[in-house]
Write a structure and sequence with these properties.
Blueprint: H1 2-40, E1 42-46, E2 61-65, H2 68-71, E3 80-84, H3 108-116, E4 123-131, E5 135-139, E6 142-145, E7 148-149, E8 169-171, E9 176-180, H4 190-193, E10 196-197, E11 201-210, E12 216-217
Antiparallel strand pairs: 1-2, 2-11, 3-4, 3-11, 4-9, 5-6, 5-8, 6-7, 9-10, 11-12
């Protein structure tokens, strides 16, 4: 009798263990799928700063499309993108090499935490103004691309002027983009730290879903 009781306990224990393992496997699979989706497809983000005001306001919720990590398509002029925040440097700016510098993350686990889970990672949101090979000149409070005045009236307020004491006359290197915030007077952007490599671009903002009164697609050059 005692032997049968022990056998029943063993069967029950094995059944409980099996159920627990099934749940653990399901959770691992679900988390893996969620991480892959977040990294390669899209994710919601929140606007925290005023550098894109008035087109994007603090507290607004957006959808960030990350499919460019799959398609390898470079963002185009007017796209609003997010990218890893560059580090500050004391090096003398080189107009012939206007590229941003980034922190080095060593170790596979640390890289996973930083780049995939994005713990402690700081992200900037800006608008693409120029792409690789284009000549950028900032003078007289305006932006010139390939010696032509850039019409930014569709996304800049009338009183916005563009100045730069650092990077103001250069060619965007191959594999890079030049980005600025729409609220130029408060935006820390490529005018200060240089152009952003494509592999640091996290995604393109496509939709705004909160607040509901401004729900809808994010246009490249809003009216």
């Amino acid at each position: 009798m005692e032997e049968k009781t022990n056998q029943k306990k063993d069967v029950k224990s094995k059944s409980i263990f099996k159920e627990i393992m099934e749940w653990i496997i399901c959770i691992i699979i679900a988390l893996s799928v969620a991480l892959v989706f977040r990294y390669y497809i899209g994710t919601p983000i929140v606007v925290n700063q005023t550098s894109m005001y008035p087109n994007l306001k603090p507290g607004e919720r957006l959808i960030l499309s990350r499919t460019l990590r799959i398609t390898k398509n470079a963002p185009k002029y007017g796209d609003i993108v997010t990218f890893e925040a560059p580090i500050t440097t004391t090096e003398t700016p080189d107009q012939n090499n206007p590229i941003a510098k980034f922190k080095t993350v060593n170790g596979a686990f640390s890289r996973f935490i930083y780049y995939n889970l994005e713990f402690s990672k700081i992200t900037y949101i800006k608008r693409v103004i120029a792409t690789e090979g284009q000549h950028v000149v900032i003078k007289d409070n305006c932006v010139y691309i390939n010696n032509k005045l850039l019409d930014e009236s569709k996304y800049l307020s009338n009183d916005v002027v563009t100045t730069s004491e650092i990077y103001n006359n250069f060619i965007v290197p191959k594999g890079y983009v030049f980005c600025m915030g729409d609220n130029r007077s408060v935006s820390v952007d490529c005018r200060v730290f240089g152009c952003i490599p494509l592999d640091k671009i996290e995604g393109i903002v496509t939709q705004r879903f909160w607040p509901l009164n401004v729900f809808g697609k994010i246009e490249k050059a809003p009216n």
